[in-house]
Amino acid sequence: MKFLSLAFLATPALAQTLKEALDGQSLGKQFAQQIDGNQKAQEALVPPGKSAVTLFLPTDNALDKHSSNAPPPLRRSKRQQTPLSDREIAYMSGDGKADLMSLSQDKIIPSQSVDPTTGKQDITLADGTGDGKQAQRLLARGNVSIPDISMFGGLGAKSKIVAGDIEFDCGIIHFVDTILDVPQRCSSSIKSLGYKNFQDALAGAGLLGLIDKPDTTVFTYADDVFTPKADKSEKTLKQHIVPNFVAYSPVLDDVKTLTTAANTTLKVRFEYGQYFINDSPIIKSNIICNNGVVHTLGKLLVVDKIVPYYPSSSDAASGRANQMTIVVALFLAAWNYIV
What we know:
Blueprint: H1 2-10, H2 18-23, H3 29-35, H4 39-45, E1 53-58, H5 60-65, H6 86-90, E2 93-95, H7 100-103, E3 107-114, E4 121-127, H8 133-140, E5 150-152, E6 158-168, E7 171-176, H9 186-192, H10 196-204, H11 208-211, E8 216-220, H12 234-238, E9 241-242, H13 249-252, E10 257-259, E11 265-271, E12 274-277, E13 280-289, E14 292-297, H14 313-338
Parallel strand pairs: 1-7, 8-14
Antiparallel strand pairs: 1-2, 3-4, 4-5, 5-6, 6-7, 8-9, 10-11, 11-12, 12-13, 13-14
């Protein structure tokens, strides 16, 4: 009998459903009400057949203030707000189970949202404390505080995780203080940020198509940095475009240089808690796009000039002398062979 009672005590509790997990939280009651009875929305979060997801759900306050993080004219007033779309909800759900400790070490997370033009999963990005040690210390204290983890999405959206590691039968829930916008193309993202001068310069140089190609990184500027007097030549603008490489901030940790569309090299370094491209600091990072990523620089980029080599007259004379020497040597070798 004593053995049976011990066995009963050791039996693990059944995992709670998503609804039960949300009902037990005070932070996300409005969102829970929105998806209650909405099978399509629930399947956007946990698609049929998925057994492990990480949900980044809005607090009531985040839902109240949601008006898209984009500057005007894309900002929506509360009067214009409509219920979250299925794709917006799907973007709140990431593949796999990622707890706070793993997110604190930076993580690129494919979401359940699929871009209709490419058929690829939209990406969200977690940027945390770096090595997970701070997260481990905080969590060991009984979750009195949580690690400082930022989530990045489309159109420059950024949120903070304010509560997390809430488990349910198909994964983990974290609550965020801002709803992340679904990623758009690089050109649309730069436009939505209000970077008119840089956008117009790219359009004038015919480079909007280039920055919208798959797997592209773009370094851009706000209008107070890229003024109308800035160099708008095609070559200079191409030095801000890195093709065939998506340089999210966790990726920048592992590279020293980037090759631009102008075939020039940019140096990458991390100093004083900030990334630098050559000597230009990244002041707004990880603007996630459905074809890559955009970073905002706080200073105009200076790229090392490539000095072309033009042979001097003495170099040319020396070259002709060397050619004559080779011809004579070949002639003598052939003559000796014949004789």
